[in-house]
Design goal:
Helices cover 56% and strands 0% of the residues. The protein has helices at residues 3-23, 50-64, 73-79, 83-96. It comes from Paenibacillus xylanexedens.
Length: 101
């Protein structure tokens, strides 16, 4: 991994935490700093639901131009698991413009 890749990943993770989660979902009981990269977003830890998952996907398209409608639901669930997996999906789509496996 290059330094630029790591810097860009860190920036994407911060944007996911602040813009896609805190701001877009209007989360009031948690800060971006409290959301770890591996925190489970839906269900267990952060407790987001399917409507909020949809909002995150719309935000990914608006902020990064990343569309995910071509992914099967089972794959999408894996990619939306936590901040790290969302960031990896965004980076893969941005750098390759291809489908993430």
């Amino acid at each position: 991994m290059t330094v630029n890749y790591e810097v860009e990943m860190d920036e994407i993770k911060q944007t996911i935490k602040q813009t896609l989660l805190i701001d877009r979902l209007k989360l009031e009981d948690i800060t971006a700093e409290e959301i770890t990269d591996d925190m489970i977003l839906f269900g267990e830890e952060l407790g987001l639901d399917s409507v909020e998952a949809f909002e995150v996907m719309v935000g990914m398209e608006e902020v990064y131009g990343v569309m995910v409608e071509d992914l099967p639901a089972t794959e999408l669930k894996i990619h939306l698991r936590n901040v790290q997996s969302i960031a990896e999906l965004i980076m893969a789509r941005k750098t390759k413009g291809t489908r993430v496996q």
